[in-house]
Amino acid sequence: MAVHVVNEARRCLNCKVPQCRKGCPINTPIPDMIQMFLHNQKEEAGKMLFDNNPLSIVCSLVCDHEKQCEGHCVLGRKGAPVHISSIENYISDAYLDHPQFTCQPPKGQMAAIIGSGPAGITIAVILAQRGYEVTLFEGREKIGGVLRYGIPAFRLPKSVLDRYRDQLTRLGIKIRPNTSIGSALTVDDLQRDGYQAIFIGTGVWRPRRLGIPGESLGHVHYGIDYLVNPDVYDLGDQLVVIGAGNAAMDVARTALRQGVRHVSLFCRGPKAAASSREVDYAVADGVEFHYGYVPVEIQKEGVLYRKSEFDEQGNRVSQSEPKLFPCTSVIIAIGQGALNRIVSTTDGLNTASNGLLTTDSAGQTSRPGIFASGDVVSGARTVVEAVRYSKDVADAMDRYMQSLREPEAEEK
């Protein structure tokens, strides 16, 4: 691994106008990272990456690099781009176990983070480093949110998230597992107890339905539910996965690893929405793709579908008569929406028609002191997009709590 990483780093042209950096949603200083690494400054490079993106190691594993940094590398125009993700992973992995935190003096103010997914972890780290007392409320047993319960271990090892927990604790962040805000505790309780800024980053965990007959049958499941704990499902030998995004690829590849012999994936359109790399991995694992298969009903014996034909522009031009595709189980993986537990127990929080929270450009909700970002605002997006927006929200929360200190200073 080390030899591969060094060789890849040496291939970097150190462009004066780095296109790779332009392709990164969080503007990672990639050429600087590589040059520091080549000049025996791995520790400094790791700190730079962490300060820019607290989830650098996660992004090095799960980002769609071929569309972002590596897809913009100039070497990729005539050959293979620099394998930037491997270099970032090597540096970030070594740094994660002994990061050099720079923290401001304690400010004596408390912030609550609801949800420990990408957005929650990012904001917790930033605010803790700025001197705030941070408590992280997680509804499940362990931190990570979608990183732990929505991405398979073969893409993101759970040990990475366990190491993050150790560092969050080291930063002084208090973690409350198995605590769902909106049940025993409410947002009002948090404000009563002195949390001056509250962040909602609960993600999107409500499966999106197909809306066809048969979805309630016993052999039908939803992708986001399946990925939480695949071990508890008995899918038989013939599985149909309905969906075309990265989550559908994760479901299909996980099922094969869990012992399902044949996995067929229904893409309702002419091509998959997932990245070409994830599609290639799925094909290599043995997933069979069926394009233009539109399910119309799920029956005990399988999925009733219509086969669509498309023109060169991808428009559907015809559909066949319904046919039965035999299978033992069906998993629907066509997206997720937001749960409304917090909204239903909190006055003054506005939502859009799709149930997602509405905020201004800085993540401020309709209720003062309550902020939100990540999937619960934007819908299911990538990890790096959640981190990018959450950095702005952390700044806004900082400004808000600072504004609460200013009247106190004037009185003195």
Number of strands: 16
Give the % helix. 25-40%
**Helix/sheet category:** alpha/beta
Termini separation comes to 59 Å
Strand line-up of the largest beta sheet: 3-2-1-4-16
How confident overall, as mean pLDDT? 92
Give the secondary structure arrangement, pairings included.
Blueprint: H1 2-11, H2 19-23, H3 30-38, H4 42-52, H5 56-62, H6 69-72, H7 84-96, E1 110-114, H8 118-129, E2 133-137, H9 146-149, H10 158-170, E3 174-176, H11 187-192, E4 195-200, E5 206-207, E6 220-222, H12 223-228, E7 238-242, H13 246-257, E8 262-267, H14 276-285, E9 288-291, E10 293-299, E11 302-310, E12 316-319, E13 323-326, E14 329-332, E15 336-337, H15 341-344, E16 370-372, H16 375-378, H17 383-411
Parallel strand pairs: 1-2, 1-4, 2-3, 4-16, 6-14, 7-8, 7-14, 8-9
Antiparallel strand pairs: 5-15, 10-11, 11-12, 11-13
